[in-house]
Amino acid sequence: MKVRIRKWNAVASWRWDVPEDDVCGICRVQFDGTCPNCRFPGDDCPLLVGKCGHSFHLHCVNDWIQTESSRGLCPMCRQKFEFVAE
Amino acid sequence: MPEKVSDQETQSQGKKRKQNLQSPRPSQGFSQRSITDFFGDSTLGLDVPTSRPSSPKRSRKNSEQPELPKDMSTPLNEQAWRRISENRVADLNGLPPHPRDPPNPNTNIVATKPPRPAPFQPHAGAPRKLHIKNLRKPSKIDPDVYFNQTWGSLEAALAAIFGSRKISASLEELYRGTENICRADRAGELYIRLKACCATYVGDYLKDSIIACNSWKDDAVKCVVSAWEKWNAQLGMIRSVFLYLDRSYLLNNANPSLQPVEPTGLELFRHHIILAQEIETKFMDGIMALFERDRQQCSIDASLLTRAVRMVDSLDLYETNFEPRFLAMSREYYDRLGILGATSNSLAEYLDECSQQLHKEALRCERYRLDPPTKRSMGLILEEGLLKNQLLILTDQGSIEDLLQKQDHKSLATLYSLLDRIGEPSSYLRLAWEKHILTVGRSIIEDESRENEMVQRLLELKDSLDSFVRVPFKGDDTLAYALRESFGTFLNARTKDRSEMVNSKPAEMIAKYVDALLRGGAKGTSTGTPGDEDARLAHSLEQVLDLFRFIQGKDVFEAFYKRDLARRLLMDRSASRDAERSMITKLKTECGSGFTQNLESMFKDIEISREAISHFKTTRNRAGNSPNVDLNVLVLSQSAWPTYDEVPVVIPLEMAQYLESYRNVYCEKHSGRKLMWRHALSHCVLRARFAPNVNKELVLSALQAVVLLLFNDAEFGTYLSYQQIKGGTGLDDKQLIRTLQSLACAKYRVLQKETKGKDILPTDNFCVNRHFSAPKFRIKINQIQLKETKKEKEDTFERVAQDRQYETQAAIIRIMKSRKKLRHNDLIQMTIDQTKNRGKLDVPEIKKQIERLIDKDYMERLPGGETWYQYVA
Ligand SMILES: [Zn+2]
Ligand SMILES: [Zn+2]
Ligand SMILES: [Zn+2]
């Protein structure tokens, strides 16, 4: 018997490379979901990983930094928030 | 109006007579004023009231419009008159000259004028002479003698009329005699004599002739009506003779005892004949019997009955003697008919009978010209006897349900319109209607053996119920509302076994049905509908959505819908992209955008994946080291898709490397992401050669493919043990058994199990089926992937229940956060309201969640008799 693969329809799933069940410290939604203002996870609503080790939805942390009370600090650890460049 | 008509009539009569009179007698002197002048020339001063005596016509006390008098004697009168006047020329000689001027009977104004009337010329021509003569003196006949003499000939004429003989004297002569008597101021005397003469005839002769009639015993109506018609004809002739008496004396007499000739004659008939006890009873009974026989569909002389009713009407006896008796007799008849029909027939038969009786009786009233008030009363009598008295039988629940069951639209339409006559139909029908819907609905929902047909049957039921409302129930709002209520009730009834849960079977089956439709597999109910495939599909979807709207547990539907959509997308089994999209739009309206957001995300993943693979292939092709496999990869956003168990499996090395290269490219492009293979969801196409000339293309799940690839290059007859296969594929027992079963024990057996039997045992050995054959080249063996497993189904339910708890808790917290303090019952109600379009919650379920939140210190119970909750910040 000869068997040969002609076509392979693979299925994969992606998730953010963060510990499972982690939630965004700002909107409290799991990272696999979107920030409250977005509809589609992924490139439309990316994550931002801080140098302090805390990650947030890009949109969430953006909104946070722009508030005066944030003083540019990470809302979790109160260190200056700087993100890891890709 | 009638006056004018009769005026013309008299004029034309006059003209006719004038021609006859003019030729033999040239005009001469004063005496040429003939009788015709009285008809033709009204300027003479004799003001003749031209309206004929109207026959006594019934006029109801309250009737607003009196009926027009109908003159029945006219034709007879005219005929008789014409006959007489054509045969004979009146001879006026020998009779005393008639007085010219009514105000002064002793003077005559005679104008000598040219034969033709000339226009008035005051100062031209010869002067006219005016002769005034006293006419009393030249009269040689004594007035009494003249009266008796004339009465003698009038009496003889009357006798001739009564005896149906020819009148010997000329009518002209008789008329003139009457005229002279009247002019001599003896009209009153003449009237008394005439009346007495007629009374004797009617009271003695005519009455006796009725009773002596051969058919009197059996057919009194006929005898009376014949006599009546005969008398009418006679009366017409009498009136002609006594016309002058009528016109000059009776018609404008204020004395009520002095009636014109015809009414006098009618009154005599009425008094002496109809109202005579021995005749009245028998006659009226006869009429009633005719009506009754007509109702019993025996043949009767319909014209006789019509004439009898008309006679009763003419004699002004309709309201007094006829109608009360007729109504009483009818009431008794229909009461009896109601009792008889309702108890001996089925409801359908009885309804038919009722509507026929109502229809026929209305026609009967028309045919015999019964009064509108009588007709109305008859309507009430029939409603009373056939409907109101038999209401218990008409509105018997069992019988109505039976009609619904049999889809007897005709009977139901009849029932509805009959009930509409006596009240609000929906108030009588509602209970049976609801019960029918619940009974049939439940029987469909609970029929586990025909679970797969559930939605189809529900759609058919809905269709048929809708058509009940539309056609026989005339779009009745209350019944339409009851339909929706009851439909919702049975669709959302609690299950017997899991009393806490609403039966989610309908929601699940509806989701499945939609899936079948979108895969192009279900026919829908619109068979035979013209139009293209897409329009038919859209219509079917619209129908099933109508059903879906009744479902309270939308979350169950959503969970299954999502799973099914995922499967359609992964296996590329969607029949129409457009239909999928329009369905999403519809679901957005029904379930909110929170639900459809995930579904849209799924579609988006498919799109992005397509772009990604084409990007990957171009880079790989440039590198030139791709294996000869057509690779496609779908990358799912985990959060949007249903959760799938991870299935560990060993992929053949070359393929695994190829996939790995894809993963590298992907992760390079999307930093911060992890990519995990879902091999249990993958499928592939394998080319297999079973024998030198048996080449097949197999569509398999990745797991099936991995098993089959172990047999590559194996000699026919080489067996691999279960354990060998397990080691080679890395599959766990559950997955392996399922996969081997699909390859060796299903419709297409590409593998052969050493031992017979459907069960796979760890001791089994397998080899390639060398005799494999199938008519088609391309064979799909991956149905196993499309089928939902029992576990998947349980998982879905589990997830729905979990989501429900989570959403309930979230709702309670939202409410408590805004209200701070709430009474127990208010909290329960508000929670139900907030979550109702997700799935209807049970009170015990909400209580359970409140307890949990209290345990988790989100809220606390306040001390006191009534239960109050306080939010804990
Ligand atoms: Zn966030
Ligand atoms: Zn966002
Ligand atoms: Zn931090």
Please sum up the structure shown.
The complex is a heterodimer of chains A (86) and B (873). Chain A has 86 residues and is α+β, with helices and mostly antiparallel strands. Chain A contains one helix and three strands; from the N terminus they run E-E-E-H.
Bound molecules: zinc ion
The greatest interface between two protein chains, and residues involved on each side, is: A-B, 29 and 59 residues
Helix content of chain A: 10-25%
Largest sheet of chain B: 3 strands, mixed
Strand order of the largest sheet of chain A: 2-3
- DSSP helical segment count of chain A: 1
CATH architecture title of chain A: 2-Layer Sandwich
SS content category of chain B: mainly alpha
What does this structure look like?
The complex is a heterodimer of chains A (86) and B (873). Chain A is an alpha+beta fold and 86 residues long. Chain A has a single domain (1-86), classed as Zinc/RING finger domain, C3HC4 (zinc finger) (Herpes Virus-1, 2-Layer Sandwich). Helices cover 10% and strands 24% of the residues of chain A. Chain A has one helix and three strands. The longest helix of chain A is centred in the C-terminal third of the chain and has 9 residues, at 58-66. Chain B has 873 residues and is mainly alpha-helical. Chain B folds into eight domains: 1-138, no CATH class; 140-275, Cullin Repeats (5 helical Cullin repeat like); 277-394, Cullin Repeats (5 helical Cullin repeat like); 398-408 and 423-489, 5 helical Cullin repeat like, CATH 1.20.1310; 492-595, Cullin Repeats (5 helical Cullin repeat like, Up-down Bundle), CATH 1.20.1310; 601-669, no CATH class; 682-780, Ribosomal Protein S5, domain 2 (2-Layer Sandwich), CATH 3.30.230.130; 791-871, Arc Repressor Mutant, subunit A. Chain B contains 33 helices and 13 strands. In chain B, helix 24 packs antiparallel against helix 25 (593-623) and helix 31 packs across helix 33. The relative contact order of chain B is 0.04. The chains are: A alpha+beta (86), B mainly alpha (873). At the A-B interface, strand 1 of A face helix 25, strand 3, helix 26, strand 4 and strand 5 of B. Strand 1 (2-16) of chain A pairs antiparallel with strand 4 of chain B. The site of one zinc ion (ZN) has 7 residues of chain A, from loops. One zinc ion binds next to strand 3 of chain A. Chain A: Pathway: Protein modification; protein ubiquitination.
